[in-house]
Amino acid sequence: MQIVILAGGVGGSRFVSGARSAYPEADISVIVNTADDITLHGLRICPDLDTMMYTLGGGIDSERGWGRTEETWRVKDELAAYGVEPSWFGLGDLDLATHLVRTQMLDAGYPLSAVTAALCTRWLREQPQLRLLPMSDDRVETHIVIDDGSGRRAIHFQEYWVRLHAVPDALDMVRVGIDQATAAPGVLRALADADLILVGPSNPVVSIGPILAVPGIRAALQSAQAPVVGFSGILGGAPVLGMAHRLLPVIGVEVDAAAVGLHYGARPAGGLLDAWLVDSGDAAAARTATAAGLPTRAVDLVMHDPATTARFIRSGVDFGLSVRAQRMQLGQVRDAS
Amino acid sequence: MQIVILAGGVGGSRFVSGARSAYPEADISVIVNTADDITLHGLRICPDLDTMMYTLGGGIDSERGWGRTEETWRVKDELAAYGVEPSWFGLGDLDLATHLVRTQMLDAGYPLSAVTAALCTRWLREQPQLRLLPMSDDRVETHIVIDDGSGRRAIHFQEYWVRLHAVPDALDMVRVGIDQATAAPGVLRALADADLILVGPSNPVVSIGPILAVPGIRAALQSAQAPVVGFSGILGGAPVLGMAHRLLPVIGVEVDAAAVGLHYGARPAGGLLDAWLVDSGDAAAARTATAAGLPTRAVDLVMHDPATTARFIRSGVDFGLSVRAQRMQLGQVRDAS
């Protein structure tokens, strides 16, 4: 079985770990958001790809959710001693080696997808059935428009999130480079060949949003043979992780599990999803979304550990398959077989 | 008083520390060899400048003689875990921050001399009368030709010294880029304005040699008003530090304190030096060099500590001044006053 997962960083990587447990025999390709990527101190940093790689490869600091276990911060402190800015980014010593290798390969002309594959030869050596695909080899960066008192200015998403802790209101968002970006090699083919496509519970605005905004990816999802099953990261009207509640207003979407599902939309209505999973605490949202045409089920979505996550993914997938089966009986979709 | 010192790394920085002690009121400019510089992992590394900066700024690991005190090697080990070569270079975590700052400034278009001044705002903040000048802002690299069994090949000096420990015979030497190099801003002016010029006991082939080979620097030394006093790094037929004995044969110079002095040459004979200092154990070399026209004195040249070093520098300078005074009486030099 070929599974494709769309995902961001911290939550996304936990979701993929769960999917790995749920379907141990499947080939899993993860299309990872790269719009959080940033260049600092001359180093190209890909937070979501790295979080995914470290998590799946067993190198993550699982308490913090990002960065390496047994990390130290000597280079960062030393850069600060030189008075070099920015000093707010969590640049660990072990992590830095990854950025050095990446930056040097990029400077040598390798595309990000090839660099990611090279880095994964270390981290995913023993998991050949798991591969990470950056959404694009092109440089795309999410910038957030804030008012800092002296007027509106656009800052990199990392600055908004890491330095400002998403405190200022996000007035607008710009995805620099997105219109000129193309999907990385393997991305569209993976979607076309998939038996199952999962949209992880990552941030709909700055994680899943950029992936879907890469020209070609939305259309590939819409035309995919595989059922597309989405999972809400909003539980009880708030994100489990991160700052989606601070950013959803920018795209005019309510901080609500039904609203996010309907933002992705139901496939028969031109949207992306065959089925939507919300938390068991959001039964009302499930009814709202279903009534609005998006088949939605409420299950326990808290990712306590890979086993729990695997359980709700299997249950979500079963629900998605039943939705597809029903619709096939009604002649609404072609039989992929 | 304006003092200019020509120097390399480990020995050179100890010599400069001694000069600092010897003449606490003087303005000291150090013209530092940059032909050892190397780019590794995308980082521009200037070993001699860094050793000088860390030593004079109190950050050196004084037992090892290079690199930072309380250094760690986490990034280096992590690069090795990625299988990234080369792994033989001693790239410490604290040291790496220096290279990151330097590389980013160079990439932004600042010349090495400006980068060095910027880095020194941290290290030499409290020593405004001490400044480090790279010999050149242009990229110059010493390559050593060896025979590795399958034929002759040229390798970077750092590979010869750090990886191969100077074991293979050096068959030849190439200073890549030297002909096109120009002296860094401030270098020629410092030599012209100096009251005293000291040639440190650094390697005559790969430390002092490249400085003298930068077009314009040799002529500036020859025409300088100041007395030029040189100090031998060869004691009793062997270098105190480093691998000068492995490289002197390449330039056809005997591993001998008199031979090195005569290689620099006496000023009246078109050479560089007014006076040459050899170790008290090399009294025969002192006689040989003096007889050959280079006024030479034997004193204890072992750099036990800055105080000892200061003592022999003062004694060498006094000797140099007496040689100049004598020669002025003989009408061989103009009075600088």
Automatic annotation (TrEMBL), chains A, B:
CDD domains: CofD_like
InterPro entries: CofD, CofD-like_dom_sf, FbiA/CofD
Enzyme class: transferase
E.C. designation(s): 2.7.8.28
Record flagged with keyword Cell inner membrane: no
UniProt cross-references to Pfam families, sorted A to Z: CofD
Molecular functions (GO terms): LPPG:FO 2-phospho-L-lactate transferase activity
Keyword Magnesium belongs to the record: yes
Record keywords, A-Z: Magnesium, Transferase
Record-linked NCBIfam families: F420_cofD
Protein name: LPPG:FO 2-phospho-L-lactate transferase
Organism the protein comes from: Microlunatus panaciterrae
